[in-house]
Design a protein that fits this description.
Jelly Rolls, 12 strands, about 0% helix
Length: about 130
Amino acid sequence: MISKTIVVGAKEHSVTRGAGAKTNIVIKAGQLLVITAAASDTWSAGTADRTSNANGLGNPLGGNYGLHQRADFKFLFGSLVGSLDGGKTFFGVGTYLAMTMVTSGELTLHYWDSNTTDNSGAIAVNVQVFPSAL
């Protein structure tokens, strides 16, 4: 089993900058991936009511700014998302994700937003990878 804590910054790991937080974890199809972030851990997409946890804006912590679309992908502003191909495609993570992987690649983690100008904060994300059950 692999277990690591990765710090994901709202500004430096924004999808608009294109550089996700590197985990140095290569996922293989069939492995179980579990990602958790504390619901009390927050970051911000700007001033006023733009603070959220990894579930994104629209939860009780911040205002509801709806979904942000980037290419074919839509998630709530301020969400934690992952990628296995360097940020070409994404999957939602939020504060808790557990899934058996159907594809392989190196995991990166990103802050989902439309700009980085006024982003701030970071959250600690625990990543666990369990061996294939196949």
